Amino acid sequence: MPELPEVETIRRDLQTHVSGLTIRNVEVFDSRVIAGQTPESFIRRLRGKTMMAFDRRGKSLIITLKPRGFLVIQPKMSGYVIYHPSLKRADQTAERSKLKAVFELSNKSALHYNDHRMFGKLYGVDDLSSVKHLNQLGPEPLAPEFTAAVLTTRLRRTTPVKVALMNQELVAGIGNIYASEILFDAGIDPRRPSRSLAPSEIRRLHRSIPKILKQAIRMRGSSLRDYRDTSGQKGDFVRCIRVYNRAGESCLRCGHKIQSIVQAQRSTFFCGSCQK
DNA sequence: AGGTCGACCTGGCAGC
DNA sequence: TGCTGCCAGGTCGACC
Q: Which of A93, A102, A159, A256 is most open to solvent, judged by the fewest CB atoms within 10 Å of its CB?
């Protein structure tokens, strides 16, 4: 799915294009994307509300509504949001089979929520505390509070460091691509128990996390398959990827073959020579 | 407490 | 040209 850099890209785009616009109508094409309520109650809750602020927590987008309420979008593996400056009929979009919900806005523009695997969720709530996963998220890795000391505490466990980085309760927003890329950048073997990292290694990791995430945000994220930004464009970070999905290819730093292993049921990619 | 595993879904692609 | 099996950016709950 969209990880932190992709959701942050969507957030910035929406803030630019639809801030202050009112949701005139909502259409839901598959009720499975609506979390915790019927599509009818979701629609009732959102209709007539004005989108005032666009925030991100981890991999979730949080839209603050006026006079009250929030729209939370959790795209998971394959969700993304497209902004259509002029209203289009749903059946005229190229994304028809992926289109799960349409938000018609006050200036005749529209937001389309696409998600072909349908793991993603849309929440319409009055109170953010009712969105359980948001309350369990660890610190934001780009916030000043995310210090090396905080990271040290968070990594005090036996879990392999790659698995720990992907645990949203320890740090919010890092997924499978960026966990591998961050560990390559820091020169740390993903299989190491996270508590075995020396202070100097934690400091390296602590520098690599924002470095890679910010670089990915500048490149507008990674599009391996589904992900698109709000104008339908692919993210460019794929050009900067050094290990993810490169099993058997040469390490761009040392020339050794990139290895692939499975950790916590997810593929991990690393260079056994550069990462110790 | 902390780890692993199946489940949730659809579709693209490699290999036969 | 099918068909089968595997794989995919995430998370949750059941189990050990």
A: A256
Residue A129 burial by Cβ neighbours in a 10 Å radius (0-12, 13-18, 19+): exposed
Reference A236, options A253, A226, A244, A224; nearest CA is: A224
A262 CB and strand B closer than 7 A? no
Catalytic residue annotation of A: 2-3, 59, 266
Please report the pLDDT score of residue A192 as a whole number: 95
- Residue with nearest Cα to nucleotide B3 C1': A159
Residue A62 near residue A56, CB atoms below 8 Å: yes
Residues 108-127 of A with CB under 7 A from strand C: 117, 119
Summarize pLDDT for A244-260 with one digit per residue, the tens. 999 999 999 999 999 99
Mean pLDDT taken over chain A? 94
Residues A92-134: pLDDT tens digits?
666 788 999 999 999 999 999 999 999 999 999 999 999 999 9
